Amino acid sequence: MAKILLLLAQSGFQTKEYGDTRHVLAHAGHMVMTASRDGGIARSTADEGVITDVALADVHATDFDGVFVIGGPGCLTHLDNEETVRIIREAKESETMLYGAICVAPRILAKAGLLRGVRITGWDNDGKLEAICENGGCIHTAQSVTRDGRVITANGPMAAADWGEVIVTALSEQSL
């Protein structure tokens, strides 16, 4: 059983991306924890409250087997910060930990230079992801889910369950 951390916007995380991903991971027997900027209750785009387990400042990525950023309109306000970058940098530096993001959240990681040389996908309804990838040194794919080594990204809510399945598969490969 792996221990997975999902980073949520304090307000405005995408309900389906969180719910479907969490369900797939938990159903596969993995422990799923949540973190948000301030801890406490995070609110989804549907105004659903989720009690998070920890504030971003108190997260040590090395306590987990995977760290993933959930998208939604609030993530660019609540997760595009030094703490999120620190957490994903720790995951990247571990050399074994899985990490990634879904929907608009891969933009945060690309902007921070944490996806250099990696193929990724993400929300691109505004047509800006290609330029963000170019500036961040990563390669945009048009796939719904893209896995490149330890990095797993997805393009939005409709891909959330598949994203969770790819994470589960990657975790099982690591345990072999």
Automatic annotation (TrEMBL):
Every DJ-1/PfpI domain range: 3-169
Transmembrane segments annotated in the record for this chain: none
One Pfam entry name: DJ-1_PfpI
A GO CC term assigned to this protein in UniProt: cytoplasm
Name of the protein in question: DJ-1/PfpI domain-containing protein
